[in-house]
């Protein structure tokens, strides 16, 4: 089992193509690439944390989750209505989470923090929301698809050596 993170997929949202200058002709083309790259990276038995802003229409989320590999956790974003949160297919849903990966703590939220629990002890803040346009603080990583070739990113790519 591997561990992955992503954010800001905005499935079905044509506005995201224009606002964030995504290289797709339309939302259907964007969605096809997002699904293909997700499933190429994430296996059926892998864990994946989606750090918010899943899709434009909550009604589309159950079908999307059924097509996407992995055991899926949601950290709610500002564009995730109650219908997205309630969709069948999430292993867990929360507004904030902390994970311990070996001797590293991860603080997960849709939003980037100025400071976070364990920051001075090497903890990382994984977030979305900024679509790769925010200068990060040390140990702060935007896991959104805009900065990761429209694919989830593995824990191995995110964790710098401890120390």
UniProtKB/TrEMBL annotation:
SUPFAM superfamilies: Metallo-dependent phosphatases. Residues 1-131 form the Calcineurin-like phosphoesterase domain. It comes from the Bacteria. The lineage of its organism: Bacteria, Pseudomonadati, Pseudomonadota, Alphaproteobacteria, Sphingomonadales. This is Calcineurin-like phosphoesterase superfamily protein. Belongs to the metallophosphoesterase superfamily. YfcE family. InterPro entries: Calcineurin-like_PHP_lpxH, Metallo-depent_PP-like. It holds the Pfam family Metallophos_2. It comes from Sphingomonas jatrophae.
């Amino acid at each position: 089992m591997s561990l992955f993170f992503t954010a800001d997929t905005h499935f079905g949202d044509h506005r995201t193509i224009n606002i964030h200058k995504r290289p797709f002709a339309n939302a259907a083309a964007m969605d096809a690439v997002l699904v293909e790259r997700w499933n190429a990276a994430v296996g059926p038995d892998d864990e994946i944390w989606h750090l918010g802003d899943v899709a434009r229409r909550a009604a589309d989320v159950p079908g999307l989750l059924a097509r996407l590999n992995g055991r899926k956790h949601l950290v709610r974003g500002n564009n995730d209505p109650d219908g997205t949160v309630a969709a069948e297919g999430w292993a867990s849903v929360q507004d904030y989470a902390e994970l311990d990966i070996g001797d590293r703590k991860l603080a997960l939220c849709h939003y980037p923090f100025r400071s976070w629990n364990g920051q001075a002890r090497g903890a990382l803040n994984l977030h979305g929301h900024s679509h790769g346009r925010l200068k990060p603080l040390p140990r702060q990583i935007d896991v959104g698809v805009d900065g990761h070739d429209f694919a989830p990113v593995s824990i191995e790519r995110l964790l710098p050596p401890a120390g």
